[in-house]
# Entry
Amino acid sequence: MRGWGPSPALHLGWLWLLFLLGAFVVLVGEDGDDQARAYFSGTPGKVAPFRDCVWAKEGKAHGWACRGVFTGGGLRVNDVRIRPLLDEPPTGQVPAVISGPDATTAWTDDDWRLLLPAAGSLLMVLIPAGMTFAVYREDLVGPIKNWRRRRRVRGELDEVQDGLGDLRRDLAALQRDIDDLQRKLNAGPPADQGGDAGPGVNSS
# Structure
């Protein structure tokens, strides 16, 4: 690919490193892995009582950061934090979902929004993967095309061999018919089984 210089592999290597680092930051730094596990195989329950609730800021979000005891699905997990931040201080039990017995976070969003960090990480992996495919497309697709071509040619050869087999059988049958006809011709016409008695002679 033009514009990549003499060593596209080196450029792609740095690109992969950059995007994988970004995916790691998104997935781990934002608890994306825990969110995804909570979405797919989490345990629903409720958080109460609460140990403390303080007004906090996380990134661009503002709200109440609360910690408490999670119970549900036969589990009891002490001192879990509730995320995302709550708009108001809780006055009762808060429905939430956790990823497992070792979880430290209880998620109040149990819908597709839990997958946003994981989806962002996947996108950051797909970008360099797509660029790598664009650069090495012929090297990656070429063997597949050759395999398909060889498979198609092999199928055509099998059909030709089957046709030749049928032709050999037809020729063998024709040769047998010719041999039978030749034997009949060599044997000559069939001999008369009985001669004429000739004119009769009357005796007195």
About this structure: The chain has a mean pLDDT of 76. The first helix runs from residue 8 to 29. The CA atoms of residues 16 and 128 lie 6 Å apart. The chain is about 50% helix and 20% strand.
